[in-house]
Each structure stands twice: as structure tokens, then as C-alpha cells.
Automatic annotation (TrEMBL):
It comes from Pandoraea oxalativorans. This is Phosphatidic acid phosphatase type 2/haloperoxidase domain-containing protein. It holds the Pfam family PAP2. SMART domains: acidPPc. The chain crosses the membrane at residues 25-44, 70-89, 96-113, 152-174, 181-199, 205-223. Signal peptide: none annotated. Keywords: Membrane, Transmembrane, Transmembrane helix. InterPro entries: PAP2/HPO (IPR000326), PAP2/HPO_sf (IPR036938). Residues 99-220 form the Phosphatidic acid phosphatase type 2/haloperoxidase domain.
């Protein structure tokens, strides 16, 4: 049975409709991540980076894990446009295809949103790795330059990798309960890699997670509202 079939049974699997408690839990998690990010800035960020610099930074397999969400940046918009075109012309898609479409859209929007926030906050990175950027590990710099960065050298906050990973997995986890454990593992690996490689501050990762959860939840809510309107 396809998601948009006029004769679709209302008691379709969890992918058909995400319960309100699940959506509320997602929003609660986003808020919790945001509050934890505020706590992490003064008390957790520097100790974690100091530990990573001493023990794990530069480890090749950790760097590979940190880049786990990289394909999402590239595939998001093409997938969203292609599947969206199929949806437009066919007027119906199976649940998995709708999930893929929503997840790709969430990743694309999340990517744009995180880029805008990076410009707003202009935060310095933990390490020096692009355009001789001033950093904590090389120069002892730990600051935000609100609207003053304007380049990738001042774009640590929020983490784009955590944003897209959470945007993607939030859609999957809300629509398909069976995918929640794999999604949790992917999130944990990405967060570990980003922090252990000293690519991001802990608060960057938490803020990126909050943004990704919020965007992913909005896409799921928007789809459900559209479906409810069609069947009203």
C-alpha cells in the first residue's frame, strides 16, 4: 500500500503517522541539547578538547568516523529534487520513499540553517586547519565573533556534521521505529569522531544536534499536517 493511495488503511505501520508523544520527545531532546550546549561552553568545551589533543587527535580511524555524514551533504538536494519530482507526477509513493524524500529535505534545509548560524556566531575552531585560522590549540583563542567572522576560519558553531546527521536520523527514527537503534549508533559514532578528532567543541556538537532534531521534526510534522489536510 502506498503512502498517498486514496484507499490506504489508517492503521498503516509507524511510518504512516508519528505519534504526538514521539514528536514531543524529539522537541524535548532538541531543547535539552541546546541547554547542555550553553552549559558546555564555559565548563566542558576546553577540557574535552585538551583531552582529545593529548590522546586521540590525529588518529586516522577516528577521523574517518568523524566524516560519516559527509555523503549526506552531497546527496541531499539531488535526492530531494528527484524523489520530489516523482512524487509530483505520480501523486503517490511508498513509505520508504517518502521517508527518504523528507530526510533529504531536512538535511538540505539543515545545511543552509547551520551555515547561516555559523556566520552569526563566528566561533573560532579548536584547532588550526584552514586559512591559518586562529584556534584554541595553537593560539589559545576561545571566542565568538558575532557577525564578525564571515569565513570558514570562524565557523565552528554549530557542527554541520551533527546537524545533518541528526536531521537525517530524526526523520528516519520518527517514521520507522525499527531504525531507531541504527540511527542512535550513527549519531554516537559521528559525535565521538567529531570530538575525539578535535574538529569541534562539545557545545558545537550539541547545538548541531539541537538544530538537526528541530529541522527533522518539522519536516515530519509538516508531512503529517499535509496528509491530515488531504483526508479531512
Amino acid at each position: 500500500m502506498t503512502e498517498l493511495s486514496p484507499n490506504a488503511a489508517p492503521a498503516n505501520p509507524p511510518a504512516a503517522a508519528t505519534s504526538t508523544p514521539c514528536l514531543r520527545t524529539a522537541w524535548f531532546c532538541a531543547l535539552a541539547c541546546l541547554l547542555l550546549a550553553l552549559v558546555a561552553i564555559p565548563w566542558i568545551d576546553r577540557p574535552v578538547v585538551d583531552f582529545a589533543h593529548a590522546h586521540t587527535q590525529g588518529t586516522r580511524w577516528i577521523q574517518h568516523i568523524a566524516e560519516l555524514p559527509a555523503p549526506l551533504f552531497v546527496a541531499a538536494w539531488p535526492t530531494f529534487l528527484i524523489v520530489g519530482a516523482v512524487l509530483f507526477f505520480r501523486r503517490k509513493l511508498p513509505s520508504w520513499a517518502v521517508t527518504l524524500w523528507l530526510a533529504a529535505g531536512a538535511v538540505g534545509v539543515g545545511s543552509l540553517a547551520k551555515q547561516a548560524l555559523k556566520f552569526v556566531f563566528g566561533r573560532t575552531w579548536p584547532a588550526t586547519w584552514i586559512h591559518e585560522n586562529p584556534s584554541y590549540l595553537r593560539d589559545g583563542v576561545f571566542e565568538f565573533r558575532f557577525f564578525g567572522g564571515g569565513s570558514a576560519a570562524f565557523a565552528s558553531f554549530p557542527s554541520g556534521h551533527l546537524t545533518v546527521m541528526l536531521a537525517f536520523t530524526t526523520v528516519l527514527a520518527l517514521r520507522h521505529q525499527v531504525l531507531r537503534v541504527p540511527c542512535a549508533i550513527a549519531i554516537a559514532l559521528t559525535a565521538f569522531g567529531q570530538l575525539a578528532a578535535a574538529y569541534h567543541w562539545t557545545s558545537d556538537a550539541l547545538a548541531g544536534a539541537a538544530l538537526g532534531i528541530a529541522v527533522g521534526s518539522l519536516f515530519v510534522m509538516g508531512w503529517q499536517h499535509r496528509q491530515a489536510s488531504r483526508h479531512a
